């Protein structure tokens, strides 16, 4: 579960957003799972998997604090101490169903990997991706290569003006897969789409379900985002 991975590339791809690729051979990774990355701070940083190509894993992260600032300074050839893959990912058994993927900001990355896998299985998908502004948009072309993609920006500088809930309201689908900030997840969780799965981003401690730092309220009590999730059926959690 613990790996020493080698950085292949680490570059800025949008406003305060970095793409890091690492080499980690011999690991099977399900879409929606994550890795816990060690930095010089007390706690590791959870990073979702944006893509897997052979033995290379792609992570995207926003530079917002000491840990991610440290990661942004890593160079090609540097080694990282990581735990993973951890958690439970998105369901892939969606044959015969139309799937809509809804992502917001740094919640977009795991949706690229799951969309690529669904595309390889011949499953129709449509993606709705929300960002703050044109400068914050990333992976638009990559998503468009896999099917219909709608971009929204809060300030209207690119794509449709507003939030992801606007275009979502006019989409007919059987399954919704979503990842993003809590306010967005609350909004999409009430969609009339029959099956809805949410990837929740909470602060984490251990990443393996031992410390209870990342609990989320559920109808019967609480669930641990790191080990019970991060992907949940919308009926399983209370946001």
From TrEMBL:
PROSITE patterns: FAD_FR
PANTHER family named among the record's database cross-references: DIHYDROOROTATE DEHYDROGENASE B (NAD(+)), ELECTRON TRANSFER SUBUNIT, DIHYDROOROTATE DEHYDROGENASE B (NAD(+)), ELECTRON TRANSFER SUBUNIT-RELATED
GO biological process, alphabetically ordered: 'de novo' UMP biosynthetic process
Note on how the cofactor is bound: Binds 1 [2Fe-2S] cluster per subunit.
SUPFAM superfamilies recorded: Ferredoxin reductase-like, C-terminal NADP-linked domain, Riboflavin synthase domain-like
UniProt binding sites for [2Fe-2S] cluster: 206, 211, 214, 226
Stored HAMAP family: DHODB_Fe_S_bind
Cofactor(s) in the UniProt record: [2Fe-2S] cluster; FAD
Name by which UniProt lists this protein: Dihydroorotate dehydrogenase B (NAD(+)), electron transfer subunit
Metabolic or biological pathway, per its Swiss-Prot or TrEMBL entry: Pyrimidine metabolism; UMP biosynthesis via de novo pathway; orotate from (S)-dihydroorotate (NAD(+) route): step 1/1
Annotated FAD binding sites: 45-48, 67-68
UniProt keyword annotations, A-Z: 2Fe-2S, Electron transport, FAD, Flavoprotein, Iron, Iron-sulfur, Metal-binding, Pyrimidine biosynthesis, Transport
Domain FAD-binding FR-type: 1-92
Complex formation: Heterotetramer of 2 PyrK and 2 PyrD type B subunits.
Task performed by this protein: Responsible for channeling the electrons from the oxidation of dihydroorotate from the FMN redox center in the PyrD type B subunit to the ultimate electron acceptor NAD(+).
